[in-house]
Design goal:
The protein contains 10 helices and 14 strands. The chain has 338 residues and is of the alpha/beta class. Belongs to the ROK (NagC/XylR) family.
Length: 338
């Protein structure tokens, strides 16, 4: 490992009580390889170029655009090209590209994407044919959970809730990502909240994400206020002014989400639930409102918090996947703080 520059010598330790040679102290070299990460939503794409340990080299973000099968490959190609131009010299170079997709993924295949059409193409084959690096595709919520476990959390069992256009739960148990037999584990957004309720793209009616996702909150707020454009900052401003309609809307959203969290906690019994949502970051009081409703026997003592990694958790999860495959390990930890 020293020859591969995966570890470096940091000094000489003390000999034991029985004598003998003093041990050589070693430290993992997180700067020995490079990683490329992508978070691809239905209206944005974010890229992170980093060292193996997550330290950023360059990042790019393109927002307010419609992502679909006709432009996603070109966007990825452009961003990777930008990253390659600034790549520092390392022993192993770029060791992988991981794509986070908002949908069901099974063995690098995009199986189902409710809010864009990436399930109509073989994204893995197209990207693999362009670049000389290993390519991995995984569900966005799963990668968010892995990012939390690898880079921020001291817990071995956690659930990370990703709340965007939909709602997904990434599940880590004993340090390992749980994806299910067909990659569908954690699709909490498609659990039924209201039987015979609003039709969901998945084919069911009354799914949780049709009532408690960020997108639904924005749409309801826009209708309520007669606005054509809504973002997190606008809702936050109204909330800080204690606008009555906004307060009621926020209370409703947190109550409905608490039902989903209660259900997933009952199933998986995690040590902590971490929320990844732009609106919950902007209005942290929403986390406390969720906790108010978590008062049943199975959920009243569960820890709930906003992500320490903020909006980078998914990208860090991609970095973790690249690292796991490169090092051929199932568990990887770079940070013991939360």
């Amino acid at each position: 490992m020293i020859e591969d520059e995966l570890v470096t010598e940091t000094g000489i330790g003390d000999a034991g009580n029985s004598g003998g040679r003093k041990p050589i102290l070693l430290k993992f070299n997180g700067k020995s390889a490079l990683s490329i990460s992508f978070d691809i939503g239905y209206d944005y794409i974010e890229g992170l170029f980093s060292f193996l340990d997550g330290d950023e080299i360059k990042s790019e973000s393109k927002r307010k655009l419609k992502i679909d099968s006709t432009n996603v490959v070109g966007l990825i190609r452009t961003i990777v090209s930008d990253f390659e131009k600034v790549a520092p010299e390392t022993k192993h170079g770029i060791i992988g590209i991981t794509l986070a997709i908002h949908g069901v993924i099974h063995q690098n295949k995009v199986v189902f994407t409710p809010y864009y059409d990436l399930d109509t193409m073989d994204l893995y084959e197209e990207i693999s044919s362009i670049f000389p690096y290993p390519v991995y595709i995984e569900n966005e919520a799963n990668l968010t959970a892995l990012g939390e476990y690898t880079f921020s959390s001291t817990f071995d069992s956690l659930i990370s809730l990703s709340i965007h256009s939909g709602i997904g739960a990434g599940i880590v148990e004993d340090g390992k990502l749980q994806i299910g037999k067909h990659g569908k584990a954690g699709e909490i957004g498609h659990s039924i909240l209201y039987p015979s309720g609003t039709t969901c793209p998945c084919g069911n009616q009354g799914c949780l994400e049709q009532y408690a996702s960020n997108k639904v909150l924005y749409d309801e707020f826009a209708k309520l206020k007669g606005l054509t454009h809504v973002n997190t900052q606008i809702i936050r401003d109204y909330y800080l002014k204690k606008d009555t309609e906004t307060m009621i809307l926020i209370e409703k959203n947190t109550y409905l989400l608490s039902i989903g969290i209660n259900n997933v906690v009952t199933l998986y019994d995690p040590e902590i639930v971490i929320i990844n949502s732009s609106i919950y970051r902007a209005i942290p009081e929403m986390v406390e409102l969720v906790k108010v409703h978590m008062n049943g026997y199975f959920s009243k003592d569960i820890m709930i918090c906003n992500s320490p990694l903020e909006d980078k958790a998914t990208l860090y999860g991609c970095t973790a996947i690249n690292g796991q495959h490169f090092l051929n390990v199932q568990r990887l930890k770079f940070n013991e703080k939360i």
